[in-house]
C-alpha cells in the first residue's frame, strides 16, 4: 500500500497535484470503508409513511410538547441550521444549560444508537427523551405530554391518519414514532457522496489530500461507514486524557466502570456546519476539533497544512438542506382547554 | 506529517533502507501512543506481596481447583507457552470445548477489563470465573472450591501468611486475590520496549517498516498503549462483517444490542507465540490474522510485503519468559479426606 501511495503522491506532487493525479494517490481499497448515504433510512419497527412524516413534522416544531410551551425539538436541533444549535450546550425550558452538546438530527436515524451515550436504541425512542427531561423540555411525564396533545383537537384526525390501525392513536409511543418517521428522511447527500459514487471531479486536490491525511493518520478507523461515525463507541482521550473529566460518558448510563469516558463516535456529515464540537462543546472551530482529536485520540501533532487539508475535505461532507421538507408546518390550534392542561 | 515521512522514506529507500535511516521515517510523535510495559502491574485493592505470589503460584498450578482434578489455570494458560494453549478453543473438564479462544495470561493484569467481553473488572475477579464455569473447571460452586482447598492441610498456613489480617483466610475471594497477585508479575519486556526507551537499534529495518505500515493503516488506533491493545472495546467486522456471527461478544454479557459483536481489543504483546487468533480462534497464523484485521476492521487489502513487515515487527513484541517465576511449585499434599470432598 505504502509504496504505491508514495509513488502516486510523488507523481502528483511532480505534476503540481492537479485533482486528477491527486485522486490517484487515494488508496481505492480504503474507500471501501465509506459508503454513500442512504436517502431513505428505514426501520422495520416503524414503517415510514407520508402521513407519519406529516404528523412528525408538526410535532417536531410544536413547542407545546415542552412544559413552558417555549421549546420544540427544533429549538435545540434547528433544521435550517443543519440540526444543531451552535451552542456549547443547549438551553432547557427555564434557560438552564444541559450537560452535553446537542448533536445534529440530520442522519441521526442512521446512527447505531442514539444520544452521546447510546441510551436510546433508535430515533423513535430518542424522541421521547428530551420531552420529559427536566433539563430540556421538562414535561413532568409522558402522560402529561399526551394530555397536552389530546387537548389540541386538530391533532386527533392527523394521528388517526398516521396510525390508522390504532384504537387510540394519540400515545407517547406514537409521538415518538411520528417524530422518528420524520427524522428518517432528514438526509443531506453531499459532494462526498458523488465522489464515492465515482465522480472523481467532485473533490478538489486539497480535499483529496485531506482525505488521505485523514486516512493515514487513523481518523478513519472510528469515523467510518456511511456516516463517517455513528457506528461505534470510543473512549475519548485514549492517548492523552480528555481535559474535562466531569462527564463520564456511557458509564453514566450503564454504571459500568468499563464504559468510563466512552462516547458514541459522532458523524462527520455536515460537520462544518455543526460546531462547536464534542460532547462537551469544547472545540469552537473545526480546526481546533481536528487538532484535539489527533492529539487525544491518536497521539499525533498534525502540521498546519495537514489540518487545513482535513478541514477542507470535511467541507465536502456538507450537503444541501432539504428546504421544502423542513419548512415549518402550520400547527393545529389550541382548544379553550389546552392552556390549562398541565 | 506526510511530507516529512515521504521525504524520510524516499531517503531511506535511496540509501537501501538501512536501520538507522528507516528509523528516521517513523513519526516520533506517533510513538507517544505506545508505552514500555510496566514491570509491576499493581492494584490498590490487592497489594502484591511475596506471600501472596507464593500462594497464587500454587493455586495457579493446582488442578484440585477443578471438579475432576484434571485442570488448573495453567492447563488453558500454560505459562511456559506464553500463557496460551494453542487451541482454537480450550478443553474443559470433560473434554468439551469452550466457546472462545483462551487469551494469554501474560500482562492480563494490565487490561482495562478481563475476558473477551469485559465481564470481570480485574484479574482477581477473573480468576474466580473459570473455576466454577461448567464448561471449564466446573466446580459446582465457590463454596465447593473453598471446601476442596480447606481439605488440603498444607494450604492453611500458606493462606495465613498471604492474608495475615484475615480471621478466616481461606475464602473464594482470597483464592482470586492470590492468583491475581501472582498474575500481576507475569510480564515479559521485549525488544519493543528497548526501542521505545530509546535504543533505536533494537528493531530491524523491516520491523520498523512494519511499525510504519501498522500505524499508517490505522491498526494503532485500537492496538495502542503499553499493551498495544487491552484498553478498549471494538466491534469486530466494522467494515466487512465478521464471518462467524454465532458469538455476539459483549452483548452476551450486557444484554444490550448496542454491544453486539463488541470484544475487547486484545494485547499484541507476545502475539507471535499465542496463535491461533481472535475470540473464535479463526486465524491459524499471524499472517492470516493481520490480513483479516486489515480487511474486516480497516477495509484495506495489504500487499504481501506489508503483511510480512507487520508480522516481523510483531515479533519484536515477544519477550523472554520469566522461567524462574513460572516454575511449577511443589503443592501441598492431599489429606485423607481431600479426595472425598466434593
Quaternary state of the chains: homodimer
Element order of chain A: H for helix, E for strand: HHHHHHHHHHEHEHH
Greatest interface: A-B, 47 and 46 residues
Largest sheet of chain A: 2 strands, antiparallel
Strand sequence of the main sheet of chain A, in spatial order?
A: 1-2
What is the count of β-strands of chain A?
Answer: 2
Q: Measured on Cα atoms, how large is the radius of gyration of chain A? A: 22 Å
How would you classify the helix and strand content of chain A by structural class? mainly alpha
Helical content class of chain A: 25-40%
Low-confidence regions of chain A? 1-24
**What is the general shape of chain A?**
globular
Q: What is the number of helical segments of chain A per DSSP (H or I, 4+ residues)?
A: 13
Describe what you observe in this structure.
The structure is a homodimer of 342-residue chains. By secondary structure, chain A is mainly alpha-helical. Helix content of chain A is 36%, strand content 2%. Chain A has 13 helices and 2 strands. Chain A has helices at residues 2-14, 19-24, 50-61, 73-76, 123-132, 142-150, 155-162, 172-183, 191-196, 205-217, 250-254, 286-298, 304-315, and strands at 233-235, 262-264. In chain A, strands 1-2 form a two-stranded antiparallel ribbon. The longest helix of chain A has 13 residues, at 2-14. Chain A is globular and about 65 Å long. Mean pLDDT of chain A is 91; it is low at 1-24.
Amino acid at each position: 500500500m505504502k509504496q504505491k501511495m508514495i509513488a502516486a503522491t510523488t507523481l502528483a506532487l511532480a505534476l503540481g497535484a492537479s485533482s486528477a493525479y491527486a485522486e490517484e494517490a487515494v488508496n481505492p481499497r480504503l474507500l471501501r470503508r465509506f459508503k454513500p448515504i442512504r436517502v431513505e433510512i428505514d426501520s422495520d419497527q416503524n414503517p415510514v409513511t407520508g402521513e407519519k412524516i406529516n404528523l412528525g413534522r408538526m410535532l417536531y416544531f410544536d413547542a407545546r410538547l415542552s412544559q413552558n410551551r417555549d421549546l420544540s425539538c427544533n429549538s435545540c436541533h434547528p433544521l435550517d441550521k443543519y440540526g444543531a444549535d451552535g451552542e456549547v450546550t443547549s438551553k432547557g425550558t427555564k434557560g438552564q444549560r444541559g450537560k452535553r452538546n446537542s448533536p445534529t438530527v440530520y442522519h441521526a436515524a442512521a446512527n447505531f444508537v442514539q444520544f452521546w451515550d447510546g441510551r436510546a436504541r433508535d430515533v423513535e425512542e430518542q424522541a421521547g427523551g428530551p420531552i420529559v427531561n427536566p433539563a430540556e423540555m421538562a414535561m413532568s411525564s409522558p402522560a402529561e405530554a399526551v394530555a397536552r396533545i389530546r387537548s389540541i383537537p386538530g391533532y386527533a384526525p392527523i394521528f388517526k391518519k398516521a396510525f390508522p390501525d390504532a384504537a387510540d392513536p394519540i400515545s407517547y409511543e406514537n409521538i415518538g414514532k411520528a417524530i422518528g418517521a420524520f427524522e428518517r428522511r432528514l438526509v443531506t447527500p453531499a459532494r462526498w457522496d458523488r465522489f464515492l459514487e465515482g465522480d472523481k471531479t467532485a473533490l478538489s486536490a486539497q480535499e483529496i489530500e485531506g482525505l488521505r491525511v485523514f486516512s493515514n493518520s487513523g481518523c478513519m478507523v472510528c469515523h467510518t461507514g456511511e456516516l463517517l461515525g455513528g457506528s461505534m463507541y470510543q473512549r475519548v482521550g485514549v492517548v492523552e486524557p480528555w481535559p474535562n473529566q466531569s462527564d463520564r460518558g456511557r458509564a453514566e448510563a450503564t454504571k459500568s466502570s468499563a464504559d468510563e469516558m466512552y462516547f458514541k463516535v459522532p458523524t462527520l456529515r455536515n460537520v462544518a456546519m455543526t460546531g462547536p464540537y464534542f460532547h462537551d462543546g469544547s472545540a469552537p472551530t473545526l480546526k481546533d476539533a481536528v487538532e484535539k482529536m489527533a492529539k487525544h485520540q491518536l497521539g499525533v501533532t498534525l502540521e498546519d497544512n495537514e489540518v487545513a487539508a482535513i478541514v477542507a475535505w470535511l467541507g465536502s461532507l456538507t450537503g444541501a438542506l432539504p428546504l421544502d421538507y423542513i419548512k415549518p408546518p402550520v400547527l393545529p390550534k389550541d382548544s379553550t382547554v389546552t392552556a390549562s392542561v398541565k
